[in-house]
Amino acid sequence: MSCEQALAYWIWLAEVLGPGGVHVRDMLEAYGTPQALYDVRFSQDFSGMLAPQQAQAVQSIGLEHALQVLARCEQLGVQVAAWDDPQYPEALRLIEDPPPVVYYKGNIDVLAPDTFTFAIIGARRPSAYGLEATAAIAKGLAEAGVVLVSGLASGLDSEAHKASVRAGTPTVACIAFGHDTCYPAANRTLKGLIEKQGLVIGEYPPGTAPLRPYFLQRNRIIAALSRGVCVAEARRVSGTMNTVHAALGYGKDVFAVPGSIFSPLSEGANHLLSTGALAASSAADILSFYGVDMPCAAPAPVPEVDVLALGTQAQAMRKVLGCTPKTLAELCEASGLPAGAAMAALTELELAGVCRQLAGRRFVHKV
Can you name the CATH fold of 109-289? Predict the structure, then answer.
């Protein structure tokens, strides 16, 4: 059997069971391999082992569908690692509900067992305090060589990834959609940079739209791949807290940034601190817990921005930025760029050190 066909059986299993890794271990323990299950799919009754939709999919989905998925991955340059592949992240093998396959772009070796991976997660619409705290902590961790893991979402997830990109340290983005799309669309530029400097990984094949249940399923991947998790800012009930729940279930360390008792965005972090989470007021707090010293090198001088190296849209956006914070709508009107292009341009300027994002999606020229 060819390597391609062997991989197709694993993709078939993932498509049959659906995202979330539900019943994966049961099926592998019962049948050993996806091919063994495929060979008896019309001769056995799976109603006692699988959910009705899964049991129906065992017979209705054929290997041809998996081969089509694999062909689409090849067209897009998406790599696939199956459960039995040496490159499949070892951390995912240890959880109760592992994906049969993962789809990725970038360097999957950044998830080697000896890599110090750590997750920073938080609100999609953070306060100024949350942005500042995340930027400072993520910068310190990235400069110490920690591979930051997050979800590529707006807000604090993006802030953590950007800190890693600026520090030149790999970062891991766990996505809840296929690699042929990006959500939010404004993070497409950031996603491309992470693919070159780190890893973008998920359990969803190309063509998968970003649906709400997938983000909740994705959160267990963030938790599993990380040695610990830090909540920078979050509401008491949120996707961030869902990730924390998964992390606690996997026995991971949980940190939280203390916040104002008057801010709803700090309720989640403050609740975690009251129930035993470790306080993180700086990167040093996290590094010292793991016995890692902060880097002692003097800060590098800030290089001058090469305007010609910026994209055309980023140059146009740079001209309308000022010392007074402006909203995205104001910048779109001033630059003539649509919202998606404007956000991509602003991301480019942030990574170049030209622009700074404030709370409420306001932007200012960085002095």
Answer: Rossmann fold (3.40.50)
